[in-house]
């Protein structure tokens, strides 16, 4: 009796599924009805070279990616505005 691999290794899983079919394990599978991944929407924000350099420098200082730093700043701003009277 074969079992599904118990690993988080992408290379091990890829090797396993190269030689096996998912239908051979249908009794071991569980249907997931709620979303597994949260969909996100991306936007593009134009920055000058100078702004981008400053952003990347600050992000490195904070041990974050530039995108993570921008997301943090936006969340902080939105959170602070939700605390203000009359925010909708």
* Helical amount: 40-55%
DSSP summary, beta strand count: 0
**β-strand amount:** under 5%
Task: Quote the average pLDDT.
Answer: 88
Largest sheet: none
Class by SSE composition: mainly alpha
Q: Could you tell me how far the N terminus lies from the C terminus, measured between alpha carbons in angstroms?
A: 58 Å
Oligomer: single chain
Tally of helical segments: 3
| Order of helix and strand elements from N to C terminus | HHH
Shape: elongated
Global Rg: 22 Å
List unreliable stretches of 5+ residues.
Answer: none
Looking at this protein, list some descriptive labels:
elongated, 3 helices, 88 residues, mainly alpha
How does this model look, in words?
- The radius of gyration is 22 Å and the shape is elongated.
- The model has no long low-confidence stretch (mean pLDDT 88).
- It starts with 9 loop residues before the first helix and ends in a 6-residue tail after the last helix.
- The chain is mainly alpha-helical.
- It contains 3 helices and no strands.
- It has a domain of 34 residues.
- 44% of the residues lie in helices and 0% in strands.
In summary, what is this structure?
The chain is mainly alpha-helical and 88 residues long.
């Amino acid at each position: 009796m074969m079992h599904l691999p118990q690993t988080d290794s992408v290379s091990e899983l890829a090797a396993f599924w190269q030689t096996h079919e998912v239908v051979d394990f249908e009794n071991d599978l569980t249907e997931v009805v709620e979303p597994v991944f949260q969909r996100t929407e991306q936007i593009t924000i134009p920055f000058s070279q100078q702004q981008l350099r400053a952003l990347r420098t600050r992000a490195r200082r904070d041990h974050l990616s530039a995108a993570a730093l921008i997301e943090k700043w936006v969340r902080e701003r939105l959170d602070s505005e939700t605390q203000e009277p009359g925010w909708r």
